[in-house]
Amino acid sequence: MAIKSVPKERIDEAMQEFDRDFRGRREWLGWETNLAHRYAIDAGGTSYPAKKIISIATGIAVSQFSGGNPTNRYLEKRGFTVVELQSTEPEHAIHFTPGTVYDRVTEINGPFGGSRQSGIAASATHPAIFLFTGDSGEQYGYADRWDGGAFLYTGEGQRGPMTLTRGNKAIAEHAETGRALHLFQSLGKGKGNRYIGEFCCADIFERAQQDVDDEDRIALIFRLVPVGSFAQEAEGELETKIELPDSLAAARLAALAACKAVTNETSQSAPRKVYQRSRKVAHYVLMRAQGLCESCEKPAPFIKKDGTPYLEPHHVNRLSDGGLDHPRYVGAVCPTCHREIHSGVHGAWLNAQLKQRLIAIESLTIE
Q1: Which is deepest, 39, 130, 319, 342, by most CB within 10 Å?
Q2: In Å, how far are 1, 26, 80, 198, 314 from 176, measured between CA atoms?
């Protein structure tokens, strides 16, 4: 059956309906890794199932029209970007070395997705958001800098007040969507981009500053913390000061709340805030495992002095095991599985299997 013709605006409305009525349902959790969905609409780094969106927009059941190229052409003709989703096979690993200069087209956004021009480039095919900062941004009202162990990153939007949409929303929700933040310093036209490192968002605050037209406006500033930089510094001081729930249900609620970036609550240092949040996520994940490795499903190798089983948190979407993440992307694994995932010849495959298992586990309880 030919796809009924509808305007672009109707498809935009269908995407909003999907966010409101379908995205949170159990059957749509983790849909990007379901083999039934090969293509997606990429809207500023947020993915939408191509055929489902057309079905909502036209009122035609998914089973009544063909997918693949006809669907993609239908959407592209109306100005939408269609991407091929990553398969359930181990994905090409994202690895950048701090201090190294990379070409954006051939080494960053080319192989890993995301806009090749925007300062915030969220990938729809890999669990990553690429951020670019540089001196040239000052002419557009941006003034990024280091402050108290955090990098203050100005959101996108050259004119008028900034809103928590598109790239800004992607940063704010990166923990919930399981996407790591990779920060690069743009060195100028034709000079490449120097990799600064992987970061996580502690919080957001608003600041009055001028836009590209020298008009006063409210800008969004993200406090970004280098992954792994805060734990050693804060651990001794904060070890006894974090209140961790005793029940599994309460621990889960605390972990989910910890993953949400809060605006204009910057009384704590950014590194401390991220450390406290990551502790809450790890606490819940270890309770959730109930003493069994979530990879090999075998009992923990030993009991710790405090009487709890020894398992280690592992972030399935990160280069490292530090920083804030979401329970859907953090597993509690035994030391053997942990080492094999990071160093073993079959590590990527084990990580992909664990990723699928975590989606299934967390889908049992809807937020």
Answers
A1: 130
A2: 37, 16, 24, 16, 16
pLDDT tens for each residue of 62-85: 777 666 678 888 899 999 998 887
Write out the two tokens for 263.
């605006």
Domains and CATH numbers, the chain: 8-84 (no CATH), 101-226 (2.30.280.10), 241-363 (no CATH)
**Separation CA 231–CA 105 (nearest Å):** 34
Neighbours of 304 (CB within 10 A): 10
Residue count of the chain: 367
Q: What is the pTM of this model?
A: 0.70
Residue 341 and residue 300: Cα distance in Å, rounded? 17
CB distance 338 to 312 below 8 Å: yes
What is the tens place of the pLDDT at every residue in 239-278?
A: 446 788 889 999 999 998 888 888 888 888 888 888 888 8
